[in-house]
Design brief:
Length: about 400
């Protein structure tokens, strides 16, 4: 039988991944590992399954964390972006398969560690990155030549419902972040925050929103996977609720996203640490009018000498309470968590064709292993195909 360790399992997203495993996977034990014992035991009670139990973990005790994870088949890493490089190393030392949500790149330094352990780690598998990678591969598999990929998403959740989410906001719009890139004609080009705005029509109820280049890993992983296919342009954009975007734009324009220190009543503070703490304690920071997730992936290429555009979108049950399992914030957290759980269950089944090591999602999984499972859980992928006269290389501002 299989076993899973949910690191950061008391978090809003990782607990939903655990819930999906309880409902759909075969296993004999599932550990909720977290520093917050009260929240962790609440999750165990909520899941109400004798195979699920709480394990206290101390992020400062590397040896203790490795010992706690050792013996499990797969670790679902729900920790924050800034911890993922560190936790990946510990998962490798524990001899487990691993998967996380962010995939910002530090994980690949531990490829040899996982190869020696005979285990596989996949950085970045949720909605985006993760599901978007599989959607792009679906379209590319139908083309003889893939020339343009544009990945877009709308992430409709409060700006600060957890510290990890607040950290993600600050990270993605850090003015000095080197990873905010587009792929153009064989090279990666760095762009500034709010670069290349493009109006994206997301499935209802989300609608039309301006979206900007964001530092997501699909740009690099798709460029690696599609190398030699004719790929010339990859752009990844995203948006949050309009009020969130207005706030982040103001913080950027006023220099606060640099998170510099300032003095306040004799104390040295970092401005975004203060802003994040305030938002996490405010009604505006912890609620939003519409919850959920929407994906939009465009792939342009050639088949049999003709040019086509494949547009793939994603829909899910509404957050309005008509389905209690998707009500409110859960319409967001389940969207992110379910793909992670599905991929973790695939990892647990045995060796992957890519072999041991740290691998990009495109090499670790096949769309046919992931997307049908999402469909069965209410996450639906829709595809339209149209013939085009020429490729759309347009951008709204120079990089």
């Amino acid at each position: 039988m299989k076993s899973y360790f949910c690191l950061g399992g008391a978090g809003r997203i990782c607990r939903e991944a655990a819930r999906d495993l309880v409902e759909h996977a075969s296993f004999d034990r599932l550990a909720i590992g977290d520093t917050n014992e009260r929240a962790g035991r609440e999750v165990v009670e909520w899941l109400n399954d004798p195979r699920v139990f709480f394990v206290p973990v101390d992020p400062g005790d590397d040896d203790g964390l490795v010992a706690a994870m050792r013996g499990y088949d797969v670790v679902l890493d729900g920790t924050a972006i800034t911890l993922n490089g560190h936790t990946t190393r510990l998962i490798g030392l524990a001899g487990c398969h691993g998967i996380n949500l962010n995939g910002f790149g530090e994980e690949y330094a531990y490829d040899e560690l996982f190869r020696k352990a005979g285990r596989t780690h996949v950085p970045g598998f949720g909605m985006t990155p993760g599901t978007t990678n599989m959607m792009a591969l679906c379209a590319a598999a139908q083309l003889d030549k893939t020339v343009i990929v544009r990945v877009s998403h709308g992430s409709f959740r409060p700006v600060a419902f957890s510290k990890s989410i607040t950290e993600t906001t600050t990270y993605e719009y850090d003015p000095e972040l080197p990873g905010r890139v587009v792929f153009e004609r064989g090279e990666f080009r760095q762009v500034k925050p709010f670069a290349r705005p493009r109006e994206i029509a997301l499935p209802e109820p989300y609608g039309l929103h301006p979206q900007y280049i964001i530092p997501h890993s699909e740009t690099k992983t798709l460029a690696e996977y599609l190398a030699g296919s004719g790929i010339e342009l990859i752009e990844v954009r995203g948006t949050w609720p309009p009020a969130n975007m207005l706030l982040v734009r103001a913080l950027y324009e006023w220099g606060m996203l640099r998170n510099e220190t300032f003095e306040h009543k004799g104390m040295e503070l970092r401005i975004m640490d203060v802003v994040g703490d305030y938002l996490g304690q405010s009604r505006e920071g912890t609620t939003t009018a519409l919850y959920g997730y929407a994906l939009h992936v465009e792939v342009e290429g050639e088949r049999d000498g003709r040019l086509y555009r494949h547009t793939l979108t994603h829909t899910h049950p509404p957050s309005d309470g008509t389905d209690p399992e998707w009500a409110g914030l859960r319409a967001y957290t389940r969207n992110v968590a379910i793909p992670m759980a599905v991929a973790a269950a695939v990892l647990a089944e045995g060796p992957r064709p890519c072999g041991a090591g740290v691998h990009i999602p495109e090499r670790a999984f096949l769309p046919g292993e992931i997307l049908p499972a999402l469909e069965r859980r209410g996450l639906h992928i829709h595809e339209t195909i149209e013939e085009i006269d020429g490729y759309d290389f347009s951008t709204c501002e120079p990089s």
